[in-house]
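Problem 12. The chain below contains 344 residues. Write out its predicted structure in token notation.
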Amino acid sequence: MKKMALALFATLVVAGLTGCAPAAPVSKDLTVFNWQDYIPEDVLKDFKTQTGINLVYDTYGSNEDMYAKLLGGATYDVVFPSTDYVPRMIQKDMLLKLDVAKIPELANLEPSMAAKNTWDPKNDYSVPYNLGSTAIVYWKDKVKVDDPSWAIFGKKEYAGRIMLLDDPREIIGAALKFNSFSVNSTNADEITKAKATVQGWKKGIVKFDNDLIKSAFAKKEIWIALNYPENQYAELDAADKDKVGLFFPKEGGMLYIDTMTILKGAKNVDNAYTFINFILKPENLAKIYDNYGYPGVLYPRTTPLRKVAPTYTASDLAKHEVRGDVGEKITLYESAYEEIKSTK
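Solution.
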């Protein structure tokens, strides 16, 4: 009897100790790596206020910069790669497979996107966030645009007053379109011809740059820029915005779709899902789209909530192609671009 009593006592003690053990602390942190000028501060502040999550928010200027930093060991929870980078990140086992049940707002996605999604057809690893394009912006009092073409980069009267983004896919893609090729070409001869075109343009280009381009244009140090229009307009004084023109080249260009992903090994996965779902709420997307003038066509439920007309619409991008993954042929772009930049 004593043995049974002792055994029972021991069992109760163990059970009691187990029941009293403190639960693992719930994480209240989140790290996000996103494009510059992509979510306004008030939306990020609302997220922190409504969820109580401590947000560390870093930015980058190109997919190449983002990818290099991650390969170099940087760790984040949520990252916003463009569609051409999602497949390579999947291949490198960098992305967490998503539980879409934890992202109910994804149901608001434009249904036709399913047919266009070639990078991650079932949204296993990525959630479409935004659609847009670079544009050519210019000072109306300095530049006369009779022909809205990529050819403007080669006009002698503007030599030394032009700056372009530092992005091999955007720059080579522009020249491919100028030569009537696909922005996703994997043909070596076509990319060589595009390289020659950019080398011709380079005679009038001050620099390829993702950081100084905004301020240089805003200060009128340059008169023409190939940039994301939302980034450039964010840099301008309110009084100057009507003095700046914008056009999408008649030949067409490159259309981007950026996505939200969770990195494999993320430390705050539950908070990452909370963030993604928060951003996709129609009222929050409407604020984001209004702030930067995006078309906002991926999530139609945002339309009635918007208070500002978009800077451009999907019809302006009718001749554009979605920036796609070119696989191993990316080396053709990279080597051509390096040669362009190294040529005087």
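Discussion. Confidence is low (pLDDT under 50) at residues 1-21. Students who got a different answer should revisit the alignment rule from Section 12.3.
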